[in-house]
Description:
By secondary structure, this protein is an alpha+beta fold. It has helices at 22-27, 48-57, 77-84, 132-141, 164-172, 174-177, 217-228, 240-245, 281-290; strands spanning 32-36, 39-44, 60-63, 70-73, 97-103, 109-117, 123-127, 148-150, 155-160, 184-189, 192-197, 206-211, 234-236, 294-301, 314-318, 321-332, 337-345, 354-358, 363-369.
Amino acid sequence: MSIDNSLPFISFGPRVRKSPYFDATLRAGARAFTVYNHTYMPTSYTNPVDEYWNLVNGVTLWDVACQRQVEVSGPDALKLVQQLTPRDVSRCSPGKCWYIILTAEDGGIINDAVLLWLPDGRLWLSPGDGDVLLWAQGVAVNSGLDVEVFEPDVSPLQLQGPKSPHVAYALFGKSALELPYYGLMETELDGIPLVLSRTGWSGELGFELYLRDSALGDSLWSRVMEAGAPFGIAPATPNLIRSIEGGLLSYVSDIARTDNPYTLGLDRLVHLDKPGGFIGQAALQQVCEEGVQRRLVGLEIAGDPLPASNEHFWPVTQGEREVGHVTRCVYSPRLERNIGFANVPIALSGNGTSLRIKSPERELQASVCPWPWVPAEKHFPPDVGN
Length: 386
């Protein structure tokens, strides 16, 4: 799997935001970018397979400042967030992070996000690609709630991989290792204000460093790379292979606006009886009672290794009729097979069901299988900090 240098490239300009780490990523060798949440995000330093092995065997640093935070603060902050999501976030508490989904009146998914509950009571939403800020402000404007909804000066870095705890210990000491999975703390590093959390989109052990002063982005990048040098740290980007292996869904690709939580198997994030209700409650109650019509399923695709991931949704067919589509797929070098996800009718969602897929080159045979293939790592090795 390699980058084709003959492909079109993205030109840079002032219309799209540059992250506080943009110059540092160029110095580190970033050679491809995409636009995510109106911000340039690196998508390649070397190639996806090399970056995959760096991630699963070592430690990597990602510029994900494109995860633009949405801050909800004020006396009614929790009430507003409760309206936005079917998950009962009143069960969360300061110092913790939760994975949530945001739903519309028809039960469709506006976005998914990590909720960070800061010790001082402020709530941050860290969403996928989409204008969640505008959605939350639109809900708030006529809600009658005493809240402020805005984008704070916060820019995340992800420190990911099995050696990430060693780097976090070198940077923050024992307090980093005392963080529970999906826990957070406010801290600083050489005077750089941060929120540190045990979260990430890698499926590996990892942390997110939420920079709270964009003027210090270059300093933070350099400081983390310096601390990680003894552990072979490498710059990297969100990795397609590992995200699919770990069942980490991607908004717009695996999660569509027309999907509901039950389609995606995210029933655990829906609390229909939560106090105060939420946007889309009636629609999701109806889906719960009548049953889901479609399902996102895991796929194993037969044949030679796929040369690259799919640029478009690949049709899933039954006879001559298109009945679904492959959302993402890739060859896993660790599993030595092609894996991915497809959105199909419920009648075709059972494990072992055979499916036909039309790729641009040829027809492929696939079968529905359980996922994730490689669950997320959550526990630190015993040698960290010794």
